[in-house]
Design brief:
This protein has about 140 residues and is mainly beta. Helices cover about 5% and strands about 35% of the residues. The protein is built from one helix and twelve strands, in the order βββαβββββββββ. It has a seven-stranded antiparallel sheet with strand order 4-5-6-7-12-11-10, with no helix packed on it. Strand 11 and strand 12 form a beta hairpin. The model has no long low-confidence stretch (mean pLDDT about 80).
Length: about 140
């Protein structure tokens, strides 16, 4: 079969959050992190947007992040539904999110503060969650 006629296999990501660690497909991700670490996990980004911050987006995987001035990344955003913003991935995340061994679904939560990391809900309290953000827990002392 011709190579260009083959259907591209979609990569599925499994995100496992533990008290102080995050694993994406068995790769340990520490926050703050770097773009190089995310490229190791997700491959080259689909888009980069330069505005007040630099936004890096993986459209096929439903993942994005923004770089601070010192090129640190404090969190990644994972979108589970479509959103029209240019700063959001064009396709939703189709992988799975776990807190330890328990899968987190579209159920309601606003923030799960672990120790060094936290999982934040994306979307207001009055609407359905459209994704989540994983990264540094600013409340951790």
């Amino acid at each position: 079969m011709l190579k260009f006629l083959k259907k591209k296999k979609k990569k599925e990501f499994i995100i496992i959050c533990k008290t102080n660690e995050i694993f994406i497909n068995d790769i340990n991700l520490n926050f703050p992190t770097t773009i190089e670490q995310l490229i190791t996990i997700f491959g080259e980004p689909t888009r980069r947007i330069h505005s007040s911050s630099q936004y890096v987006i993986w459209d096929d995987f439903g993942v994005s992040c923004s770089l601070k001035n010192d090129n640190e990344i404090l969190s990644i955003s994972v979108y589970q539904s479509n959103n029209v913003s240019e700063y959001v991935a064009k396709k939703p995340f189709t992988g799975k999110l776990f807190l330890e061994e328990e899968e987190i679904t579209f159920g309601e939560f606003s923030k799960i503060g672990l120790n060094k990391i936290a999982i934040h809900r994306l979307g207001s309290e009055s609407e359905n969650r459209f994704g989540f953000s994983i990264g540094v827990n600013n409340d951790y002392k």
